[in-house]
């Protein structure tokens, strides 16, 4: 049973560029959440997707956008990259029970983004 | 506003010492409670969870946590820590987000535990 898989694992971009990160959820999971984790910090919630719609959003600018596909996989897009966007981006999948997200998350290994 | 407070930001222990990490939350309704752990260089993973039932829950690697509703607390404990328990520990609370079925996972800032051999 595959867990949460993310790609790419590492990438380097320059300021102003755009990046797309990808996530495949754990088998049987229908909800994908994205987090940003700066070095030495806790995870910061970006947004959550369920049924191909953004359901919740944290305090991140519109430069951060996402998408969920019919197979539940998801993408995180960041436009006009800033140096401060350098971080580990974590994808977490979960399964809603009765339409409600329980909070039990399974995390991927993350995508390490470096912006120069 | 809903919040989660972890009392200790950095904890240093010697092997075989007992551990208790505090976690308090501010929401008064029904919540799901979690401790997540991040070992050095590894991804976040679930340590233990509480949804309902016995307020004393047991997780992986000998960890346990007790939900005390009257104190809005969910403290993490381990009787005897090992060097391999060195990690970041995050408390998280899943609370209702307005009306309907949507719930929001609120994270504490984390506690860095270093266990000296």
Describe the protein:
The complex is a heterodimer of chains A (116) and B (117). Chain A is mostly beta strands and 116 residues long. Chain A has no helices and 11 strands. Chain A has strands spanning 5-7, 10-13, 19-24, 31-37, 44-50, 53-57, 64-68, 74-78, 87-94, 106-107, 111-115. In chain A, a hairpin with a 5-residue loop joins strand 7 (64-68) and strand 8. Chain B has 117 residues and is an all-beta fold. Chain B contains no helices and 12 strands. Chain B has strands at residues 4-6, 10-14, 19-21, 23-25, 32-38, 45-50, 56-58, 64-68, 73-78, 87-96, 103-107, 111-116. In chain B, strands 2, 5, 6, 10, 11 and 12 form a 6-stranded mixed β-sheet that branches. A 4-stranded antiparallel β-sheet of chain B has the order 3-9-8-7, with no helix packed on it. The termini of chain B are far apart. The mean pLDDT of chain B is 92. Chains A and B meet through strand 10 of A and strand 5, strand 6, strand 10 and strand 11 of B.
What does this entry show, briefly?
The complex is a heterodimer of chains A (116) and B (117). Chain A has 116 residues and is mainly beta.
Give short descriptive properties of this protein.
heterodimer, A: 116 residues, mainly beta, seven-stranded mixed sheet, 11 strands, 0% helix, B: 117 residues
What structural class is derived from the secondary structure elements of chain B?
mainly beta
How far apart the termini of chain A lie comes to 37 Å
Q: With helices defined by DSSP (H or I, 4 residues minimum), what is the helix count of chain A?
A: 0
Helix content of chain B: under 10%
Task: Give the percentage of residues in beta strands of chain B.
Answer: over 45%
- Considering DSSP H and I runs of 4 or more, what fraction of the residues of chain A is helical? under 10%
Low-pLDDT sequence parts of chain A: none
How many H/I helical runs of chain B?
0
Class based on secondary structure composition and strand pairing of chain A: mainly beta
Q: Any idea what the radius of gyration of chain B is?
A: 14 Å
User: In sequence order, what are the helices and strands of chain B, one letter per element?
Assistant: EEEEEEEEEEEE
Mean pLDDT across residues of chain A:
94
Query: Can you summarize the main beta sheet of chain A?
Result: 7 strands, mixed
Radius of gyration of chain A: 13 Å
Shape of chain B: elongated
